[in-house]
Write a structure and sequence with these properties.
heterodimer, A: mainly beta, about 10% helix, disordered N terminus, B: about 280 residues, alpha+beta
């Protein structure tokens, strides 16, 4: 990963988790954060897979976060079944923070409690896309 | 809030919107106008966009940036961003995002006032698709997921994995019916022209373009022309779509997309109802 891995400072913002579905536009794709929380709802749905989660802020208060990943049928083809996580599961999401400061993370990797990592996007991993930068 | 198609209409249209009725069958029963076999491309089968053939060497960054179709201008602008050494430290994803902003600016320049109203109101956060509303014609025909083309007698059938929508292309040469109710996918007739399949579509229910990198909307006056060609090495399907709409566009809007041939692929049923998007 060429992107700097940041651990997000929670509590700096407590904005509602709005829905987005164009990560390249609405996320800071040059930044990467890790958001750790407890699953509230998981939908392998349209237009993109979503995990709503409760995250403990720096002030100790709960915050509602949304992690949004790839298209449902693409993830199905990549082995997702829709039961990857369930409410109450402790997870980590590695992804890109929103540009507008809302509690939304563009979900790249889902790290389960047992350490298993699932790539949750329907686009290439950043390093693979970088390899195409000058390919015409 | 997200917008429903109802609010879209309230904003800009007085035309009736109905996405549920099927197109009226052509009324004039003329004999089938058989196209010369050599002029008909072999289109049958499943075709996949970049997301479901991600490891194929054919794809370039431009294909990832344009996975839902792009104008030539957008493709050139993205390549310019990629070639600019000043951007070398910016991730490719960020440059794609920047090119989408440029694409929206380009789109905005061709919108009439009622379409501009939609452009300003509908964005990625207010997109009706977030409320499980399927794509209208302009988004569906170039959506990111696989498509399947088959024959139904003399006609062609296009099936789209995304939203599991389907449309018939009437190939019997009878033209559009005089009276046909607008539908999401409209009424389409096809013909072969110098190795290409050319589809003419009218009777489209008003809807929106991709808010991520185009925006605005089209009306019941929209007229679409799709030109499909097949190229080899790798075998791929290319389309050039032109939408004209005197009510919503000041000039025709032309965009392109490519799919790779994936003969073994089966479409997956895609339904928001099965997987609700809200907690």
């Amino acid at each position: 990963m060429r992107n700097a891995l940041l651990t997000i400072v929670l509590g700096a913002v407590a904005l509602p988790a709005a829905a987005h579905h164009s990560a390249a536009v609405f996320s800071q794709m040059d930044k990467e954060v890790t958001v750790e929380g407890v699953v509230k709802t998981y939908n392998l749905g349209n237009p993109h897979a979503r995990i709503y989660m409760t995250v403990k802020g720096a002030d100790g208060k709960d915050q509602e976060w949304l992690a949004e990943g790839g298209s449902r049928t693409v993830l199905l083809r990549n082995g997702f079944k829709g039961d990857e996580v369930k409410p109450g599961d402790k997870i980590k999401i590695v992804g890109n923070p929103s540009r507008d400061g809302t509690n939304v993370v563009h979900w790249e990797k889902l790290i389960l409690a047992d350490g298993k990592v699932l790539w949750g996007e329907d686009v290439p991993e950043p390093d693979k896309l970088e390899e195409l930068r000058h390919k015409k | 809030m997200q917008y429903t198609r109802f609010t879209l209409i309230a904003a800009a249209f007085t035309a009736t919107l109905c996405g549920c009725s099927k197109p009226t069958e052509p009324t004039a029963a003329k004999p089938a106008a058989a196209a010369p076999a050599a002029a008909a491309p072999h289109l049958e089968g499943a075709w996949s966009g970049v997301m479901t053939t991600r490891d194929n060497d054919f794809w370039r960054v431009e294909d990832w940036g344009c996975f839902n179709g792009c104008t030539d201008t957008t493709v050139a602008q993205l390549r310019e961003l990629l070639n600019d050494t000043a951007n070398d430290k910016l991730p490719v994803f960020a440059l794609i995002g920047r090119s989408w902003g440029m694409a929206r600016a380009e789109m905005k320049s061709r919108l009439t006032p009622p379409s501009l109203e939609i452009f300003e109101k509908i964005n990625d956060e207010t997109d009706p698709t977030l409320n499980c509303e399927p794509y209208g014609f302009a988004r569906e025909i170039v959506n990111a997921l696989p498509i399947k083309i088959s024959k139904d007698g003399a006609n062609l059938v296009f099936e789209y994995e995304e939203w599991s929508q389907k449309r018939t292309i009437y190939m019997d040469g009878s033209g559009h019916p005089k009276e046909v109710a607008p539908t999401m996918m409209g009424h389409s007739t096809g013909r072969y022209d110098n190795g290409a399949l050319v589809i003419d579509t009218v009777a489209l229910a008003p809807d929106i373009f991709y808010p991520s990198y185009s925006g605005g909307g089209y009306s019941e006056q929209a007229h679409a022309t799709e030109r499909y060609t097949v190229a080899e090495n790798p075998r791929r399907l290319q389309v050039e779509v032109t939408i004209e709409d005197p009510k919503m566009l000041t000039e025709p809007y032309t965009f392109k997309k490519t799919w790779l041939h994936t003969p073994d692929l089966e479409l997956v049923h895609d339904s928001c109802k099965d997987y609700p998007t809200k907690p």
